[in-house]
Amino acid sequence: MKSGSNGLMTIDALALASGMTVRTLRSHASRGLLPSPIMQGRVGYYNGSHLARLTFIREMQSAGFSLSSIEQILSGVPDDAGEAMLHIIRGLLAPWDAEPTTTYTPEQILSLFGASATLESLTEFADLVGAEFDPDGNVTVTAPGLLTAAAEAMKVGLTPQGVAAAGEVVVNSARKVAACFVQLFRDSVWSQFVEAGMPEEDWNRITGIHARLQPLAVQAFLSAFQGAMTQEVSSALSEELGSGAHDVVQRLLRADRGASN
């Protein structure tokens, strides 16, 4: 229970207030996610900052962030950060929320990949989608969008090995693009904001710029990829078909536009 009217809580009271078990709280503390309690004699007490941090952890997990990712985020946050600061941090991360972790039953996997899918074929890109298999054949993945894309690619005839290799290139390229845009934000906006003392009146401007980064990055990446794909297909067809390549490329492009309409 709470200790008097000073807002301090025992670990049992903190567990009740946060909706977590005492075991989970101890696990978070062992990972450094939960700061040390305030000691009064031999008893440790917790306050509103501890509760705010646990709320932040729960919200981040619900958004699909792993505990390792949350640990990295919180490593630079003061132990006494209150609800307001953690809310701001959560807002900065909102546009980049990871996909929610999804668990598929064997029947769902069969429906997703088709009757020809086997466990062996799925393990080719298990690391790519963060897949974990349980004894009942269920598959839990951290990147369900990649899993769906891999399934569609295999359905049209691409090999699991090829899909895994292509997926790795996509993921690595995406990481480089993401790192580039994040560094651009840090150099162009964030560093000056920090040097100015992070004035309260500038927070809306900073979060607004940050929120625009994702659609801008996606638009730039998609535009560049579309152009690169057209060039690569044209080059490959030129090698295969010679002078007839141009007509084939135009037919492919018309078919793609028709399929998207």
Model description:
66% of the residues lie in helices and 7% in strands. By secondary structure, the chain is mainly alpha-helical. A three-stranded antiparallel β-sheet has the order 5-7-6. The protein has a two-stranded antiparallel ribbon with strand order 1-2. Strand 1 (2-3) and strand 2 (8-9) form a beta hairpin. The radius of gyration is 24 Å and the shape is flat. It starts with a strand and ends with a helix.
Concise summary:
With 261 residues, the chain is mainly alpha-helical. Helix content is 66%, strand content 7%.
Strand content: 5-15%
Distance between the termini: 61 Å
State mean pLDDT (0 to 100 scale): 82
Going by helix content, strand content and strand pairing, the class is: mainly alpha
**What does the largest sheet look like?**
3 strands, antiparallel
Trace the largest sheet across and list its strands: 5-7-6
- Described by the principal axes of the CA atoms, the overall outline is flat
Query: How much helix, percentage-wise, in residues?
Result: 55-70%
Chart the SSEs and their pairings.
Blueprint: E1 2-3, E2 8-9, H1 11-18, H2 22-30, E3 38-40, E4 43-45, H3 48-62, H4 67-74, H5 83-93, E5 102-104, H6 106-113, H7 119-123, H8 126-129, E6 132-133, E7 139-141, H9 144-155, H10 160-195, H11 203-241, H12 245-260
Label this structure with key terms:
flat, 261 residues, 3-stranded antiparallel beta sheet, mainly alpha, single chain, disordered N terminus, two-stranded antiparallel sheet, 66% helix
